UniProtKB/TrEMBL annotation:
Native organism: Actinokineospora soli
Superkingdom of the source species: Bacteria
UniProt entry keywords in alphabetical sequence: Kinase, Transferase
GO MF assignments: kinase activity
SUPFAM superfamilies for this protein: P-loop containing nucleoside triphosphate hydrolases
Highest classification ranks of the organism: Bacteria, Bacillati, Actinomycetota, Actinomycetes, Pseudonocardiales
Any Pfam family: AAA_33
Protein name: Nucleoside/nucleotide kinase family protein
Length: 199
């Protein structure tokens, strides 16, 4: 499908009648964070943004486990912590739920960086493995899958790696290396989405 941004806002807005969880999924560099942030902005106080990225294991843990070179792979996240947070946000109490945030400059998660007030109806959550982890999928009212096409996605991803300080060679090595393996895994989950967003 090629929905316009306004159509996506209308669909998200229709979901926001009570506490609901909307997932935005897709491979690395697809544009999930960008789309999710634009949606939350457009919903003007009726939505909060919670990234799966906040559940990256800390660098010191990856170093100890020997998985730092695969940072971004499914086992380099605290999947259970993410699922528990989704369940807490679904249950809705009269309390603020604090979600973590991934700081791309630090390359580390920061705990309790995103307050999610109870009176915000829609939580938009975005990340790579929303459809890979069945317990996460089961807690989401809808999941949208962003697929801009592989050439565009790789170009965007490599450019973003350069923007964050890598050389073009390092950027492409990462894009076509560990990122590509994750992308293939994520592509295999696309059929589980409720909506496929192509450019
Ligand atoms: N619609 C778009 N048009 C042009 N550039 C875009 C668009 N969406 C995102 N980008 C750019 O592409 C890059 C990747 O986008 P973004 O960070 O949103 O992807 P992502 O899916 O969140 O990636 P990751 O899985 O690595 O977190 C960013 O530099 C962003 O500015
Ligand atoms: Mg992102």
């Amino acid at each position: 499908m090629r929905p316009t941004f306004d159509e996506l806002v209308a669909r998200a807005s229709a979901l926001a009648d009570r506490r609901r969880l909307l997932g935005v999924c897709g491979p690395p560099g697809a544009g999930k964070s960008t789309l999710a942030a634009r949606l939350v902005d457009a919903l003007d106080g009726r939505a909060a943004l919670v990234g799966m990225d906040g559940f990256h294991l800390a660098q010191r843990v990856l170093d100890r486990l020997g998985t730092a070179d695969r940072k971004g792979a499914p086992d380099t996240f605290d999947a259970d912590g993410y699922v528990d947070l989704l369940a807490r946000m679904r249950a809705r109490t009269d309390k603020i739920v604090y979600a973590p945030l991934f700081d791309r400059a630090l390359e580390e998660p920061i705990a309790c960086a995103v307050p999610v007030p109870d009176d915000v109806p829609l939580v938009v959550t975005e990340g790579n493995y929303l459809l890979l982890w069945p317990r996460a999928r089961a807690l989401l009212d809808e999941v949208w899958y962003v697929d801009p096409g592989e050439d565009v996605r790789r170009e965007r991803l490599a450019r973003r790696h350069v923007d964050h300080g890598r050389t073009p060679e390092q950027a492409w090595e990462r894009t076509l290396g560990s990122d590509e393996r994750n992308a293939e895994l994520i592509a295999g989950t696309a059929a589980l989405a409720d909506l496929l967003i192509t450019p």
